[in-house]
Design goal:
The complex is a heterodimer. By secondary structure, chain A is an all-beta fold. Chain A has no helices and eleven strands. Chain A is 0% helix and 51% strand. Chain B has no helices and eleven strands. Classes of the chains: A mainly beta, B mainly beta.
């Protein structure tokens, strides 16, 4: 069964460093999302992407964040200068019709 | 804005039935989803309701009443592996501010299944 994949599974970085989180959505899906979940808290929407552009973003998704689909398969989330409060689990999701399928997540730890 | 409420935690016995409730206040409702999330893992899709009524899928059923802003997830013949967090999520309609198919999640209900 096709699935969303994400790399790395765990990323540790120093405050102020740039990180790139990578996702490979399900191949025939057209809508892509990033969500994050701070430990013990609820899943929060960050950004949605369709037709090579951002279709919606939340107030969390400020100028430090960017997304890109550099080729036909990858979908990336970049955090330009990480802060301690960016430590969270980051989930990529993709959708063709109603269901959003989530990847296994990248646990980002900012020290 | 949107408000989604579900109980924080529930406990049930293996083999029993449990109902997890979710209430929501939104504008431009366009579907309610239930996801299962084991600790440290990704949410896994369980069910989707956009019209009133019951959707059944094996041991899991989900009910929606749009007029009441209410849904429940029903789990039958509980198994130990059903111990997880159950997330209620609402999708807003396109064209509504904040809509566009993103999901807004509740805080989740932590279900513990005991022997």
């Amino acid at each position: 069964e096709p699935e969303v994949t994400q790399t790395p599974s765990h990323q540790v970085t120093q405050m102020g460093q740039e990180v790139i989180l990578r996702c490979v959505p399900i191949s025939n899906h057209l809508y892509f999302y990033w969500y994050r979940q701070i430990l013990g808290q609820k899943v929060e929407f960050l950004v949605s992407f369709y037709n090579n552009e951002i279709s919606e973003k939340s107030e969390i998704f400020d100028d430090q964040f960017s997304v890109e689909r550099p080729d036909g398969s990858n979908f990336t989330l970049k955090i330009r200068s990480t802060k301690l409060e960016d430590s969270a689990m980051y989930f990529c999701a993709s959708r063709s019709y109603n269901e959003q399928f989530f990847g296994p997540g990248t646990r980002l730890t900012v020290l | 804005g949107q408000n989604i409420d579900q109980p924080t935690e529930m406990t049930a016995t293996e083999g029993a039935i449990v109902q997890i409730n979710c209430t929501y206040q939104t504008s431009g409702f366009n579907g309610l989803f239930w996801y299962q999330q084991h600790a440290g893992e990704a949410p896994t899709f369980l069910s989707y309701n956009v019209l009133d009524g019951l959707e059944e899928k094996g041991r899991f059923s989900s009910f929606l009443s749009r007029s009441k802003g209410y849904s429940y997830l029903l789990l039958k013949e509980l198994q130990m592996k059903d111990s997880a967090s159950y997330l209620c999520a609402v999708r807003l309609a396109l064209g509504v501010t904040g809509g566009g198919n993103k999901l807004t999640f509740g805080t989740g209900t932590q279900l513990k299944v005991e022997l």
